[in-house]
Design goal:
Blueprint: H1 3-20, H2 54-57, E1 82-87, H3 94-110, E2 113-117, H4 125-137, E3 142-145, H5 154-162, E4 166-170, E5 181-184, H6 188-203, E6 208-213, H7 219-235, E7 240-246, H8 251-265, E8 271-274, H9 279-289, E9 297-301, H10 304-312, E10 318-321, H11 324-340, E11 349-351, E12 357-361, E13 365-367, E14 372-374
Parallel strand pairs: 1-2, 1-3, 3-4, 4-5, 5-13, 6-7, 6-8, 8-9, 9-10
Antiparallel strand pairs: 10-14, 11-12, 12-13
Helix pairs in contact: 3-11, 4-5, 6-7, 8-9
């Protein structure tokens, strides 16, 4: 056999082997950072009560060293009135309306905190940086933020620290050294497990799914997706991840992207994950308008009120989240504790009013609590 003919035969055989391998439409997702994934143990259990505390996931390990930043020559304002500004990813959507309500609740409860929420009307990192830059020159004592991009936001947050302003993140983190503390709404692997387990409960362990997120670099969503892939590969290797698309926290684009996925994959699409409080209800609307309720499961992260119509019609069986009002509330208590000096590097917990004692994890993160699944049985008990 000639060398040329031999190479042709090998190529044909190789193509045949590839043809029988399962399709892997989605390459390895790196979560937009270099952090390792830590998938939880397999098993669906009660998704509504998925625990995401370190004790529930694995034996307690020695806490890592504090890795947050520190303000330069911050004034001593312990016990004194302070003014803080909250700059979320964007304003004007239900989720950040809820965190803002929690911020105001905590400020009123404490009595010595004045808080204001202001930010871009679109999830644009450049606009968010401008708002934070303006806050630095306005004379505030503290900045709360939810990052649109963990790397791009770091320089302006570092600038705030260098100006003696305290900086605390919530919902979506920055690079750790650019802020003092981050209030984590739920650990990434716990959210990932709840989402994947709920899909399997609805569509089986060989379903095909796609994801609608805001951007590939939005830190919390990117980490959830990374942990979803790790958990899926460990526990449900026959699930097929078809595609992930960006929708920029935009309602129309979320609907259009979900519709495109429905049309593109047809009967091969068993499930749609929405990774934001905008993507999930609009994905459910797209499935409803396409007449695919029951055929395509919609599972995602969203506030209850926009999801109630879809849950009531059984088009959506489960919505995974936490209480964003509590998240904003906790962020203010953390800020107050930092200013007062009652939360310092190396501490393992912080008191947060009605929420009680919150635990420090990962060196400079504070865990709000476990994930929660809203269903038809409980969603009407919540109003946000």
């Amino acid at each position: 056999m000639s060398k040329k003919l031999f190479l042709v035969v090998i190529l044909v055989l190789s193509m045949g082997i590839v043809a029988v391998l399962p399709a892997r439409a989605q390459d390895l997702w790196d979560g937009a950072d270099d952090l390792a994934t830590t998938p939880l143990e397999c098993g669906a259990g009660d998704a509504a009560a998925v625990e995401t505390t370190p004790e529930a996931e694995e034996p307690a390990a020695e806490a890592p060293a504090y890795d947050g930043g520190q303000p330069t020559n911050a004034p001593d304002l312990a016990g004194q009135p302070i003014t803080i500004i909250d700059v979320p990813k964007l304003i004007g959507i239900g989720y950040f309306d809820a965190t803002a309500a929690g911020i105001q609740e905590a400020a009123a409860e404490l009595g010595n905190v004045t808080a204001k929420t202001d930010g871009p009307t679109e999830a644009n990192i450049d606009d968010q940086i401008t708002f934070i830059d303006n806050a630095i020159t306005s004379g505030v004592n503290g900045i709360l933020f939810a990052a649109n991009d963990p790397v791009a936001i770091a320089p302006v947050l570092t600038k705030a620290l260098e100006a003696g302003i305290h900086v605390v993140g919530y919902d979506a983190n920055s690079e750790p050294g650019a802020r003092e503390w981050f209030v984590n709404q739920a650990q990434f692997n716990g959210i990932a497990k709840a989402l994947i387990d709920n899909l399997v409960a609805e569509k089986g362990d060989a379903a095909s799914f796609a994801i609608v997120t805001s951007t590939f670099t939005t830190p919390n969503q990117a980490r959830w997706i990374a942990e979803m892939q790790a958990y899926q590969q460990k526990c449900y290797p026959n699930l097929v991840w078809l595609e992930t698309v960006e929708a920029q926290e935009d309602a129309k684009l979320s609907f259009d992207q979900a519709t495109t996925l429905i049309n593109k994959y047809g009967e091969d699409l068993d499930g749609l994950f929405g990774m934001t409080s905008v993507a999930t209800p609009n994905s459910a609307d797209a499935v409803t308008q396409a007449g695919q309720c029951g055929n395509i499961a919609v599972i995602g992260l969203a506030t209850p009120n926009p999801m109630k119509p879809f849950v009531e019609t059984d088009c959506v069986k489960s919505v995974v989240l936490w209480n964003p009002i509590d998240l904003g509330y906790a962020a203010v208590y953390v800020m107050r504790a930092v200013v007062d000096g009652t939360l310092k590097p190396g501490d393992t917990s912080v008191e947060a009013g009605k929420l009680g004692t919150l635990q420090v994890i990962n060196g400079s993160e504070i865990l709000l609590g476990p994930a929660f699944t809203f269903t038809k049985d409980n969603i009407n008990d919540f109003d946000f």
